[in-house]
Amino acid sequence: MPPLRELMDALNHVVIGKWTDMATMVVTVYEWLITLDMEIRLIWRREWSFTKVMYLLNRYSVVVDFVLNCFRSYGEHVPACRPLFQATAVIYIIGLFLSEYTLAMRVCAVWKMNKIVIASLASVYVVSFAWTLTSFSIMLHSVEFFTFLPFGGCLSKIEGSTLWINYVILFIYDVAMLVLIAYPTIQGYRSIYEHTDLVKHIYIEGVLFYVYLLVVDIVCVTLQLALPDDIFLFGIPVRTLRSILAARALLHLRVYSRHNIQGVSTTHMGDSAAGISSIRFN
């Protein structure tokens, strides 16, 4: 059992985590309700495709996060804490990269499915995923778990956590993605041929999404440096925000793609609309 001060700090973090996770769950349900009509029309009524599967995995894998996190936050059986943390970490990382993949599809569409951009993003994506999964696995081997009755929950003692490095890598990745989507946005606004509602919505929204994510990345790095003993303190809100933005990105891509199909002229859009319209749910 760790010293009383460390015990109280860990308990305080668990309580804060419970409240933030509960608030995140409410936001998630609200977001799902207000986009349910679009999801039914644009996703569920469409034929099965790879994009549809990725959307559904990104959208509903957060439910698994919430369930595992509930067991982790309220459980009292200490031997079960390690496998719970391991399962939570794996699902969390997979969920993050599902969201990143979904958001990257928008960037690839904006770049007209350029093969160099796709290959570069795929390489960075695979390396980042492997590094994050490996570093999480190594770190969890040194974690000491305990609980504090009657409050319960899997409390942890972590020494030498380097999780902040993973968030720095994610920050650098998001900066690169912001640059990739901001450049054609600026170019599009300079060209009278690509200054259309379709391009404006897809480009500007993509820029805003990555600005939001950069702010979240900064918060995550700050929290990990300030509170290195609790690796999941802000984990669920971060995971959920990325899932929500990724789901919105694909839904909006599909909405504007349908507008294009139903009669919006692509003559004045150059090749941009072709790239955007290439992402379909069939």
Automatic annotation (TrEMBL):
Keywords linked to the UniProt accession: Membrane, Transmembrane, Transmembrane helix
Classification via InterPro entries: DUF6533
Keyword 4Fe-4S: no
Domain DUF6533: 21-63
Positions of transmembrane segments: 84-104, 116-143, 163-186, 207-225
Pfam families recorded: DUF6533
The protein's name: DUF6533 domain-containing protein
